[in-house]
Structures are given as C-alpha cells and as structure tokens.
C-alpha cells in the first residue's frame, strides 16, 4: 500500500513502493488521476532497475517472489492546489492513495485564537517542554487582552492559570531576566510596563521592579553592558534603557535617546565590536526618526554617519542577509507620507541603502527575517498598509536578491504582528499572523508545507577563556551547517553557570543539557567567535556555546569548559615531594557515581599511612593523568607510596562538594617505581571511580625525544612571555617535562608553565601524552619575578627514560633601555624634534641647544636605526628656543624653523637639502617658542611665534603661497619662556591656540571664532593638549605653582574637556619638589590611550606615567636619567611599532642627549582607512567628511584623529600637505597627532578647479593608516 501523499505548488514528489509477484515475468504498469487539472497521468513517471518504457507505456520484468523497487515521480500542474486520487494498476492489481498539492503555507485551524488588532505576539517555550508556545496581545471585540497559549503536539490551548493585564498598540517580549533558564514576560503599553516572573510555568508580577509607563510602545531585551543579564530597551512616549543589576532594574540616565512612540526598536552588534548597538525608529511631536546608536562600554552615542529613512508606525529588524557575519537592516513604515520598505547593507559597520532591492512599502507594518525555505539565507516577510490597502508579501532570498513569492495563501493585515517559528517541530519555519485583515481581526497559524529538512549546525569547538581581572574573553572555533553555505552566516549563543550544567550566570534561553533546543525562534546575539562578560565575582564558572542557523535551529551545546575568576582553592592539599621516584596512572574515563566527571573534580591518592602521594584536578572531560610519588628511603621521610603497598583513592565532586573514599585499592608491584620497562595494571574500580587503560609510563627503552630549537628570548619587567616549541617522540606514551632556571631571583621554576592539547599537570609537575612520531605543539609561559631584570639560562628537560635537554637565554629588560650605540651631542636649554626629512620611511632627529662648545642646531640622519650627523646641512645654533619640522610650502617634505639666541631662521627642504629662505622676514627672538598650524583653514601651515625681541611678543603669521605675513587682527598677550600649541579643543573644525607663559605663570587658551582668536584664561605655569579619555576632544594637563603652599611646592592637574568646557579632574601623584619643564604625550605601551613623560626645571627628573583607564601612575619599572632644562619627545625611530624616547637636558653629570629604545614589543597595528568620503562645495569653500576608522588597540574610534591631503592632480599634495607618504602606506613624517579631531573639516578660499583628496586616521601611538581611496571635488566659478 501507499500512504496518502502531499507536496506543494509546482514541487515534484518521489514516492517509493514495491511490487512482488509469485510467478514473475513481464507486467504492464498504468496510472490514473481523478483530477487531471491538478495532475495528469502524463505527468507521472516510474523508474527502477527493471522498468522499461516507450515513452507512454511502462513495463517491469519481475523475478518470481523477489520484490521489485520502483519510484513514482509526480509533477503537479503549475499554480493549482487540491487533491486527486492516484490509482496504480499492475496487470489486474490496483492500489490507490490521495495526492494533495498544498500552497506553500496552509492555515492550521486546529488551534483557535481570538482575532486581534494593534497586536504584539511572541513565540517562546515558556514551559520548557521542547515546543514553542505563544504570547498574544491586542484588542478583540473592544477588549484588550494578553494571553498565553500552551503548545501540546502542535495544538494550542489558552493557559487559563496565567493572568496578565491586557494591552493593545503595545509590545511584548519573552526573556530570561533572572537567569533561571525559563522565559519571563515583559509587557509594555496602555500606560504601564511590567515584568512577570516565570516560576515552573506560572507567571507572577515582579512588584520589586518599577518601569516607566508607556503608550504605543516597543520593547527589546538585550545585555548592553556584557554582564550576563538582560537589560531593557523601552519606548512609547519616552525612550529609555533600563539596566539590570542582579535582577534590579534602574533607568540609565546617562544615556540619552529621542522620545518616540509608534515605534520599533532592536538590539544588534552592528559594528562587531562585541557589544549590542540599537536602532530606534518612531514618531515624536512633529518629527519622525530612525537612528542607530553605537554602544561603547555600555554608553550609547548616535552614529551620525548613517542616514536612514525617518519613519513612524514602523518596524525595524537586524539580520545578516548576505551571510558576511555583520548585521544588515530592514526598515518599514511611514516617512511622513508614502510607505517605504528599505534594505540597508552593512559595509564595514556602516549601513548603506541598497537601491537594487525593490520591496513594497508598508505602513503600520510588521517585518520579520527568517529562512522559511531552509536554503541557508534569510528570507523576509512584510505586512501592513500599502496605498490604503492591506497587503502581505513573502520575499525569497536568492543570492542576496529578494524576489516576491507567488501564491503564498497568507492573509493581508495591518496594525499587525507576524512571527516566524517552528511550532510543529518539523524543521521549517511556520508563521503566526495577527492584525486587521479585510475580513476582520485575525490571529492565525500557518504551517510551512515545504518539508525541506534543516539540520542543526555542528557544535562549536576549541573553547578558550582568557581572564582579565573580573572580566572574561571567551572564544571558540566556527561551527558548520549543511544548509548555510558559509560559516559566517551562523551566529552563537552562550551558557554560563556557577556549577557544571547550570546557567545562573548567563541564561542561553535554550535547553543546553538536551539537544540545545532554542526556547525562542531568534538569532543569537553573538555575530563572531568571541564574547566578553564583565564584572564577574570570584569563583569557578562553567560554560558552553551553541551555533544558530538562519532558520533559528540551535546546535547541541559544545562540551563544557570552565574558567576561574580570582584565587583558586583545591579541596585536597598536596605538595609534591622532592623525590625521583614516581609513576603515572592515566585513563580516558573518569566517572563519579556513574556520571561523567566535570572540570574541577579532583582525584587524590593516599598510601596506607594516609600520606597523600598523588593529586589531579580534572581540567576537561578527555581523560586524566595522576603522578604518584614513591617513598625515597634515603630521605628518612614518608614522602609517598612504597613497594608492596596498597593505594587508596579519594574523589571530590566539586559541584556537590562531596568527598568519597573508594572501596577498592590498588596493589603496587615491586618494580613499579623507577622501572625501566612498561608495566600494565588491569582496569579496576568499576564502582564510583572508573579508570580505563591504566599503565605505568616509566621506560628507558625509547629513543631520545626530539625537542625543537628555542631561540634566546627576552621580555620586560613584570611581563610574562609565551614561547612555542615542539616535541616529537618515536613511541607513543607519556613523558614528564621539567624546567630549571640558573637565576632563581629572576625567574623561579615554579613560575614557568606549560600548556598544550595533550599536556596535563597536577599543579607542579607536567606530563605530555605523545603519539608516535607526531609533533606535539607546546607553549611555555615564563613569568619573571616582579621588579627584577637580568638574564637566566632556562633549561627544559624531557624524560622518557632517556633524558633530553634544551637551554636558552631568557633576558628581562626594563621597558626602556638606552641605545648606547647612538651618540648625540649633549645639550641643555634644548629643543628637539623627530621627523623624516629625507622621506625614506624612518625618523631623523633635529637637535638644538647649548653645549659646552656653544649653541648648536644639527640634523642626524637615521639609517636602519643608527644616527649620523648630516654635515652638509648647516643650521644656525640656537638655545632657549624652539626647533620644529613642518611643511610650510606644501611640497610634502619637512622644512625647518629655528628660534632662540636672538635668531629666527626658516630653512626650506629641497630634495633633502636645506637652504635658508630669505624671502621670509621674521623677528629675531630669544626665550622663544614656535608652532605651525592652519588656523585660517586655507590648506597651508600658518605660524605662531612668541619670545623676546627687544620686547615680548606673541604674533600670528598667515601663510600665503609660502610667504608669512603678519596677521594683526588678533589681540594676543605678549609672552616669553613659553610653550605654544595649536589644537581644536571645541571640536568646531578650526584650530584654537594654547599658550603657556613660564614667566607670568599663566596659560592663555585662545578660541578660534571664524579665524579670529578670543582669549579664555587659565591660571597655570604649563599646559598641554591631549585626549586622555579617548572621547574625541582635547583635554589638558596643567602644572602650576601655588602661593598658598610652601615654597617649591607645585601642583599638577588633569583638566577634562566635556563638549568644549573644561573641568578639573583632580591632582595626580607627582614629586612636588620638582618643577615641570617638558611634557610629552604618547601611547608607549600600545594599549590605545595616551601616556605621559615629564621632565624637570628645578630638580632633575624624567618619569613616565602610565594611563590606566584615565588614571595616571608612575611606571616604577622604567628608569630614565633625570634632566632639567631639556625636552623629551616620543617617536618610533626603529620602526618596530612602539614609541621610543629622545631625552635631552642638564643631568647631574652634565648636558645629555640620549635615545631610549622601547623593549615592550607590544604590537601596534595601524588604524583602518577612513571610508564614506563626501565633499560639499559652497562657493569657494569645501566641507569634507568621512566615516570613522577603527583600530585594534584603541578601544573607541573616538580616540583616533585624522590627517588630510589635497592636491591639484590625483595623488598630489600641493594644496594641503599631509606630512605623510600618501601613495605608499601612509607613513607619518612626524610622530604627532592629527589636527583634525572629528570626522569633518572645512578648507576655505580655494580657487576654481578640480581637487583630489584623501584622509588617514592616526592612533595614540601616532601610527597612520593607509590613506583612503582618493576622491575629488570641483570648485566652480
């Protein structure tokens, strides 16, 4: 017989069956159909090994009593649905069955729901029984409802034990806010917002939680601060983020969002930085909005570079439509008049409208992503109002193009809510549709008839956890999926618990201990292969991860792994004895009371006298090795087991905190300890502890293992180092690894650790399990003793009965050491600069000051990190002045300006040779200072000068075609003995001016308003710009004397910039008997923020202060020679990616000039190139803008700044020189920040013509990105 069959529109169906005949022979097969309009007999085919046909008649040659296997293929007529009786006739025998052709989706009328409008619905398995239930809200028959319907074998009935307040035009969400792995409910609308706690499938309001009341609302759960619990995004007359702190919710008043209703909100990690960003759409008074807010450390800022249609009565959803592992966006709604539906593609974190996708617009809509056809990409369902009519469309995603699917048989609705979910657990997404249809209010289920199988993804592997204080970075390897073409189309979901298998720290909203069934049909919130959880308490945590495909099917969870926050304690206390007698017990199964042991469980081995002689803490479920120590009779101590002694095993169940002593014991044979051969002990302990394949791994019959060469290594004080190497042995087995150090005051053997796939340890001794002739990859981690430097010989010993050793020199350096191979003239009252004057890709040195032989100014050329004086460059010597590099003539090489000693000289660079520019006449100065900056925004460097020229002066000089003209439009206070600096402190796109006067102990901050400077006054001796907190504006470090304090007591302070207003950040620790002379900022440790180097005036000092989260502390591991009356500057002279130091001034031993090499070797990658370049020409001015770059070391892109080039030809720099190499890798000729703090700048007073431009990003270590793709603009007459 053949069971009744079904297929869907146009889809052929194959039906296998058998024929058996007792006589055998030749038989004809014919077929009929009762409904030819659905399927005609000519569209039915038979295939099989013994089937023949002439194209019309089928026959089979059967063998007596042997079944013949036949397949019937039925092709229905296109665009027809219905049922037909198919009859097969073989000779005189017949069989019939009903063949049905279904639409793609058909209504499941077994479940009855009240029709609703103004609805919000959610699928979720609230009772944890493995199928999706339904939460339904809206208005029906003028009554507002909120009901839960329980799913039993695909049929839904109202759970009348659950009482919820009704809402309409509101929003609902399932989510596990209390991390007990059942779904709680959030209801918002009708003037309230409430959370209902799920306790064993019943719901009660959590009256301890007070949320703001809302109307016409939208809500979403998401963990904005990566602390493992769900926060809330809530709109409806307001917009608020409600933070969850241990189950208590408080509004985040530090986050400002536009107040909207008729809204839609969603969480998603749009920029793939590991935290959830948000989209907010909706209407407020006379204004519609659609905004993306980026999450930076739990704070949200609007991404003004992303332009979206502003909509209300809207729907927005994130989804990765092109499977490239970033989130794209669908927005539907009303932008004031006509309905729209727009897809925005994510290109490097920027959402760009895709005009190639044509979708019907929708107002009062619902839009949902889901893979209904199980082909591994997201399809799209949109419903709502289009041109005053209701409609619904299902769009199939085929190669990233969305095509409307015909004949879907779904009702059109508006003021609606639709959801994808596999309610019947048949592996494809069904649809629940609610809203106002043309026939009234509805709420109906539609079953997916495709019956295309969807297999869940494979479980992720290679779990790794990196602990940093109370934060954890988790990572894993990618899963795979049969239907998802690329693994980048998958996303991920975590579970974290305080005990094995628990999820009380982070609920996965899945069933991790079964097959990973997802309680909610939704994507995982983790787009990539890492996740960070913050602010965990001390303790041991157990975690696993699952993958989720485009049809929201979850993989099984990975094997459980664990990590420890804070100090760890073991149940059994064991200190390995100093004995050479030991053996190994190893096994591949460790069970406790019949259950697999979990990481953290312990095995301890005791001898008959109760002395512990072996201990092992399980780190994974893949097996174990116990090192059991034997008693050394020569020591006179009972240090372990002896021959002919029984061993007692005890186990500790860490999760249950139960210690068990096993009933069985093990007899140690005479030759066990130190035996030169392998001995096997039969499997024992079939009760509580089960050990398989035990053996003694002590032998000298093996060949000597081969250990790879290890080069000499170095690190810096207090920094560990990881050293990879390989071990290969000719035989399989277990080898012991030990290590020694020749200088234990530098590094102790106890502080050397080994890790690897097959490495095990009892906490003191390491064992590796090798496979014959296969290299084992091992990593040795060496942690030097705190505060120590020097060199030790480290020796690794491998023992398999034969001994092999490998030694190398391990050197611990100070973070900075003087490069004694570099000789520079000692100077005081000095001025120095790094700059690549010869454009060869490394930093040269300009040095000026007073020596024992008079004043000098010299250039030293850098050749592969060695400096030699360029004697062909003749500069006038100066001291107590300024020496700077800068490209004042826009030919993209560095010119030189010198002042001091009653001189001012300007030297023009022509192909690396300097000649004095006699066309410029500048005042001769002493006690002087210079700064170059384009204060009038015309594309060339202007000049500020201060100092003594018979009288004190402070003057600005405007650059016009390389000639400096005095600009007398400014009222500037004359100063000398000063420091000067340009910087855009108010982020308005032009350069302000900071002038510090040592003589008057004051600092003037001049604000640039349309090219005219207006003063703002700050009491201080010395001040310097720097963005300490990476918030995209310039803060200041200030130093002052205090008349109300004892003599020679000085005060330092950080002054923080908040939207152009300065406020004191509080003093920091500094030797207040020393007056500051020089301040330098730079990121010497490549952690993405500015550190500080200070030198003295009264009293010799040179101290580096490290910036740790905005707090500056002296780095006690760095020893620099103290100086006064000198300068200190940062620059990467050896091109190894970290900032070195040039230090000059008067030391206790006389004038010096020394280069200190940075030994940190912390890699610094260049920022990404800016993108999204635009130019807006207004008259003869151009407003340039671009999107933010990103940087691996700089946590926030707001910590970056920018640098432009503009040329009159492609690649040219004759209009605005970048002082970088734009046509190569963007190498910076000067180690300095860019003068552009924001993502826009204006260049003024251009002449008519076409201009070509590009932009680069600069990080806190002054490393420049490659320049962006070149763009052009035209200034018209």
UniProtKB/TrEMBL annotation:
The keyword Signal applies. SUPFAM superfamilies: Fibronectin type III (SSF49265), Integrin alpha N-terminal domain (SSF69318). It comes from the Bacteria. InterPro entries: FG-GAP, FN3_dom, FN3_sf, Ig-like_fold, Integrin_alpha_N. Residues 457-554, 1167-1264 form the Fibronectin type-III domain. Keywords: Signal. Coiled coil: none annotated. This is Fibronectin type-III domain-containing protein.
């Amino acid at each position: 017989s053949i069971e009744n069959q079904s297929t869907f529109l146009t889809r052929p169906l194959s039906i296998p069956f058998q024929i058996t005949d007792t006589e055998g022979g030749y038989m004809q097969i014919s077929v009929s159909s009762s409904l030819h309009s659905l399927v005609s007999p000519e569209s039915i085919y038979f295939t099989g090994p013994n089937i023949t046909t002439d194209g019309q008649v089928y026959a089979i040659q059967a063998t007596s009593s042997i079944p013949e296997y036949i397949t019937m293929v039925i092709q229905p007529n296109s665009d027809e649905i219905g049922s037909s009786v198919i009859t097969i006739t073989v000779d005189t025998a017949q069989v019939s069955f009903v063949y049905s052709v279904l639409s793609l989706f058909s209504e499941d009328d077994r479940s009855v729901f009240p029709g609703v409008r103004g609805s919000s619905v959610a699928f979720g398995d609230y009772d944890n029984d493995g199928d999706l239930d339904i939460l339904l809200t809206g208005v029906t028959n003028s009554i507002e409802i909120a009901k839960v319907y329980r799913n039993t074998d695909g049929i839904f009935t109202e759970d009348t034990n659950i009482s919820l307040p009704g809402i309409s035009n509101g929003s609902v969400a399932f989510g596990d806010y209390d991390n007990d792995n059942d779904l709680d409910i959030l209801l918002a609308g009708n003037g309230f917002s409430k959370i209902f706690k799920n306790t064993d499938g019943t719901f009660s309001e959590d009256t301890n939680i007070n949320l703001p009341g809302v109307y016409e609302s939208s809500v979403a759960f998401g963990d904005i601060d990566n602390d493992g619990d769900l926060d809330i995004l809530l709109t409806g007359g307001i917009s608020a983020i409600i933070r969850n702190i241990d189950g208590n919710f408080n509004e985040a008043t530090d986050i400002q969002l536009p107040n909207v209703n008729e809204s839609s909100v969603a969480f998603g990690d749009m920029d793939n930085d590991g935290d959830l960003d948000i989209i907010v759409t909706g209407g407020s008074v006379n204004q519609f909005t659609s905004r993306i807010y980026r999450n930076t450390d739990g704070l949200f800022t609007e991404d003004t570079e992303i332009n979206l249609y502003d909509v209300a009565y809207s729907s927005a959803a994130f989804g990765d439509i092109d499977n490239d592992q970033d989130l794209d966006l669908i927005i539907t709604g009303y932008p004031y008049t006509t309905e729209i539906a727009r897809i925005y593609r994510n290109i490097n974190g920027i959402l760009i409208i895709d005009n190639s996708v044509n979708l019907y617009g929708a107002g009062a809509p619902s839009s949902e992503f889901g893979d209904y056809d199980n082909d591994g990409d997201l399809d799209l369902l949109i419903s709502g109002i289009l041109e005053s009519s209701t409609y619904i469309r299902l769009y199939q995603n085929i190669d990233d193009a969305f095509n409307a699917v015909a004949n879907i048989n779904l009702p059109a609705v508006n003021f609606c809510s639709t959801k994808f979910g596999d309610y019947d657990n048949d592996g494809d997404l069904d649809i629940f549709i609610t809203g106002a249809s043309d026939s009234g209010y509805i709420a109906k289920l539609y079953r997916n008839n495709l019956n295309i199988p969807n297999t869940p993804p494979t479980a992720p592997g290679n779990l790794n956890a990196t602990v940093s204080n109370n934060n954890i970075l988790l990572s894993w390897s990618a899963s795979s999926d049969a239907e998802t073409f690329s693994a980048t189309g998958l996303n991920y979901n975590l579970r974290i618990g305080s005990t094995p298998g628990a999820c009380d720290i982070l609920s996965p909203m899945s069933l991790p201990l079964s097959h990973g069934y997802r309680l909610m049909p939704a994507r995982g919130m983790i787009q990539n292969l890492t996740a960070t959880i913050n602010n965990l308490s001390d303790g041991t945590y157990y975690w696993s991860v699952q993958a989720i495909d485009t049809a929201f099917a979850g993989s099984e969870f990975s094997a459980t792994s664990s990590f420890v926050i804070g100090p760890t304690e073991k149940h059994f206390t064991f200190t390995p004895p100093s004995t050479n007698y030991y053996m190994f017990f190893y096994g591949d199964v460790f069970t406790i009371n019949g259950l697999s042991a979990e990481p953290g469980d312990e095995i301890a081995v005791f001898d008959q006298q109760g002395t512990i002689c072996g201990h092992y803490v399980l780190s994974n479920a893949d097996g174990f090795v116990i090192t059991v120590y034997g008693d050394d009779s020569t020591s006179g101590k009972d240090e372990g087991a002896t021959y002919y002694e029984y061993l007692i095993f005890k186990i500790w169940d860490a999760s249950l905190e139960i210690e068990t002593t096993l009933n069985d014991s093990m007899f140690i044979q005479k030759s066990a300890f130190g035996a030169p051969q392998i001995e096997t002990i039969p499997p024992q302990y079939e009760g509580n502890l089960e050990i398989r394949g035990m053996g003694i791994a002590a032998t000298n019959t093996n060949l000597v293992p081969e250990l790879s060469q290890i080069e000499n290594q170095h690190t810096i004080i207090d920094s560990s180092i990881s050293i990879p190497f390989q071990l290969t042995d000719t035989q399989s087995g277990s080898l012991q690894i030990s290590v020694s150090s020749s200088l234990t005051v530098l590094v102790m053997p106890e502080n050397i650790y080994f890790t690897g796939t097959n490495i095990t340890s009892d906490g003191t001794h390491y064992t590796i399990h090798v496979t014959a002739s296969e290299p084992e990859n091992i990593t040795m981690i060496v942690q030097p003793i705190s505060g120590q430097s020097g060199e030790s010989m480290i020796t690794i010993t491998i023992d398999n009965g034969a001994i092999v050793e490998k030694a190398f020199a391990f050197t611990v350096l100070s973070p900075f050491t003087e490069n004694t191979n570099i000789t520079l003239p000692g100077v005081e009252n000095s001025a120095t600069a790094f700059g690549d004057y010869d454009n060869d890709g490394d930093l040269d040195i300009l040095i000026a000051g007073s020596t024992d032989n008079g004043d000098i100014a010299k250039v030293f050329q850098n050749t592969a990190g060695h400096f030699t004086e360029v004697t062909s460059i003749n500069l006038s010597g100066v001291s107590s002045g300024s020496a700077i590099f800068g490209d004042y003539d826009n030919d993209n090489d560095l010119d030189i300006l010198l002042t001091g000693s009653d001189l001012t000289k300007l030297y023009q660079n022509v192909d690396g040779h300097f000649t004095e520019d006699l066309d410029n006449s500048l005042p001769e100065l002493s006690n002087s200072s210079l700064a170059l900056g384009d204060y009038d925004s015309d594309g060339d460097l202007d000049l500020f000068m201060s100092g003594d020229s018979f009288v004190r002066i402070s003057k600005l000089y405007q650059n016009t075609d390389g000639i400096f003209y005095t600009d007398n439009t400014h009222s500037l206070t004359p100063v000398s003995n000063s420091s000067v600096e340009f910087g855009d402190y108010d982020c308005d796109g032009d350069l302000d001016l900071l002038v510090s006067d040592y003589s008057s102990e004051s600092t003037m901050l001049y604000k640039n308003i349309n090219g005219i400077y207006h003063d703002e006054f700050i009491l201080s001796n010395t001040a310097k710009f720097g963005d300490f907190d990476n918030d995209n504006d310039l803060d200041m470090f200030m130093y002052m004397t205090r008349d109300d304090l004892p003599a020679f007591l000085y005060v330092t302070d950080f002054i923080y910039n908040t939207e152009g207003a300065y406020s004191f950040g509080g003093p920091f620790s500094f030797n207040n008997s020393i007056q500051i002379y020089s301040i330098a900022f730079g990121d010497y440790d490549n952690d993405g923020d500015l550190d500080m180097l200070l030198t003295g005036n009264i009293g010799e000092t040179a101290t580096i202060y490290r910036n740790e989260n905005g707090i500056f502390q002296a780095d006690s591991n760095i020893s620099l020679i103290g100086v006064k009356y000198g300068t200190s500057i940062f620059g990467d002279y050896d091109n190894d990616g970290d900032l070195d130091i040039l230090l000059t001034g008067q030391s206790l031993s006389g004038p010096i000039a020394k280069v200190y090499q940075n030994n940190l070797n912390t890699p610094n990658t260049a920022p990404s190139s800016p993108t999204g370049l635009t130019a807006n020409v207004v008259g003869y001015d151009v407003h340039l803008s671009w999107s933010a770059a990103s940087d691996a070391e700089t946590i926030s892109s707001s910590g970056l700044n920018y640098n432009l080039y503009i040329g009159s030809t492609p690649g040219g720099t004759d209009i605005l020189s970048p002082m970088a190499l734009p046509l190569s890798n963007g190498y910076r000729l000067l180690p300095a920040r860019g003068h552009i703090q924001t993502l826009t700048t204006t260049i003024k007073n251009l002449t008519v013509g076409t201009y070509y431009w590009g932009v680069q990003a600069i990080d806190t270590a002054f490393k420049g990105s490659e320049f962006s793709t070149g763009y052009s603009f035209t200034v018209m007459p």
